[in-house]
Every structure is written in C-alpha cells, then in structure tokens.
UniProtKB/TrEMBL annotation:
It holds the Pfam family BPD_transp_1. Keywords: Cell membrane, Membrane, Transmembrane, Transmembrane helix, Transport. This is Phosphonate ABC transporter, permease protein PhnE. InterPro entries: MetI-like, MetI-like_sf, PhnE/PtxC. The lineage of its organism: Bacteria, Bacillati, Bacillota, Bacilli, Bacillales.
Length: 264
C-alpha cells in the first residue's frame, strides 16, 4: 500500500508539473501575440491585399529581365562556391583542434570550439552588414560573410566527423611508432575525407540560399538585384529573379546530392 501511495503521489506531481509547463507555454504564446499585435483577424485582413499584390504586381514574371539576371546569378554562384571552398579549408584545419580525438591539447580544443561557436551563432546577414561598412557594397562583402559563416558551421560538423572515426585504425597506426602527423595522414584523414566532401557539398546548398539574404544588404548577386527591384517597384523583374534563384537552388541540390551519393 505504501508503494502504491508513493506511485500515486509521483503521478500527481508529474501531472502538476505537466499542467504547469503547458500553462506557462500558453501564457508565453498569448503574451507574445499581444506584444506583437498578432491576431488571426489581422492575418486574414491582409490576405486579400497579399493575393492582389502577388497576382497583380509580381506575376507573371518578366522574361525580358533574364538578360540582366545573368551577371547577378553568376555572382551568386561565385560567392557561394568561394565561400564554401575557402570556408571548408579553414574549417577543416580548425576541426582537427576542435575534435577531442585529434586535438593535440585541451586548450586548443576549447579555443577552436569557442571561435567556431562565435562565428556560427552570428548570422551571415549580420556579418554582411558589419563588413559592408569596412569594404563597401559588392560581392566581396557577400563572399567574406559566407566564408566566415561557413567556417563556423563546418568546423563543428567536421569535428563531429573526426570524433566518429574508427579509433581502431588510429591505434593500429600509432602502435607502429608513428608520430602525430603520420597518424593523421594515414589513419584519420582517409576516414575524414568522405564526411568532408559531404558536408562541403551541403554547405554549398546553404550558401546558395544564404547569398540571397546577404545580397539584399549589399552583398551583391541576385539578392542585391531583388532588393533594388523592390525599391524601384519593379515587381515583375523581382519575381523573375526569384524564379532564377529557385532554379539555381534546385540545380545545385541535384548535383550536390549526386556527388554525396558517390562519396558516401
């Protein structure tokens, strides 16, 4: 009986905790809605105007704008590729210090993880805004922002790959008397390369998408074209640019998926 009473008391405590948590979440949602002046009525109130704007001003896209979109589209590709390549190389180096299985010293592990965390948790949009003041508007700003953000995200991903490698191979090479560099080159890097390529290809997809947002704050490419089009009320040109961006993303996803399938 004592055990049953204790179980009932535990169930009541869990029930009270669950109800309290639900009440707090509901209160937070309601409070946030009030503070942001969000309501279902306001959402549907602007629905008609949104439909009118999309189908009246944005559609159909203007095919004549394609000729002026070639250069921005190429800039978007260039920024994304350079951001991925440079970012992945720097991240690969940092990841060997950030992974517990390959770092030569714990202080380097803490420093590498701390740096990656800072670079990763500051959005590429913020990096672009900061860099625009130093370098002005253009693709250089967009490229640098993507490089910095790529380093932050890829360092963590690469470090996780390094921590999941087969330690048996590492110990076998180490048992031969090999030094740190030989252990890395003969046992670690061969296992690391498939993950390196897979994550780099995935980052290229992310960079293609992120380049639009980065470009809208002065980073060049299709994002910059879209921002200028919105300012000039050239909505049909903007919709054409969005369509080009969508095609670019889909094509990139197709090829990167094929590469990942062959590597993995």
């Amino acid at each position: 009986m004592a055990v049953e009473a204790q179980l009932q008391r535990i169930r009541r405590q869990k029930r009270v905790q669950t109800l309290t948590l639900v009440a707090l979440i509901v209160a937070l949602v309601v409070w946030s809605a009030v503070e942001t002046q969000f309501s279902v009525m306001s959402l549907f109130g602007g629905f008609r105007e949104s439909i009118k704007l999309v189908f009246g001003d944005f559609l159909p896209p203007k095919p004549e704008a394609l000729s002026s979109l070639i250069e921005p589209a190429l800039d978007t590709i260039y920024m994304s590729v350079v951001g991925m390549v440079v970012g992945s190389i720097i991240a690969a180096v940092l990841s060997f210090f950030a992974a517990s299985t390959t770092t030569p010293h714990r202080s380097l592990l803490i420093a590498a993880r701390g740096l990656a965390s800072v670079l990763r948790n500051i959005p590429a949009l913020i990096w672009a805004l900061v860099l625009a003041y130093a370098y002005g508007l253009g693709t250089l700003v967009g490229t640098l922002a993507l490089v910095i953000f790529s380093v932050g995200t890829l360092t963590r991903s690469f470090a996780e790959v390094l921590e999941e490698i087969d330690q048996g191979q590492v110990e076998a090479v180490r048992a031969t008397g090999a030094n740190y560099i030989k252990v890395l080159s003969q046992a670690v890097i061969p296992q690391f390369l498939p993950g390196f390529v897979a994550w780099s290809m995935y980052k290229l997809e992310i960079n293609i998408r992120a380049s639009t947002i980065v470009g809208m704050v002065g980073g060049g490419g299709l994002g910059f074209y879209i921002q200028n089009g919105l300012k000039l009320f050239q909505f049909k040109n903007v919709s054409m640019a969005i369509l080009v961006m969508l095609v670019l993303i889909l094509v990139t996803e197709f090829f990167t998926n094929k590469i990942r399938e062959k590597v993995i």
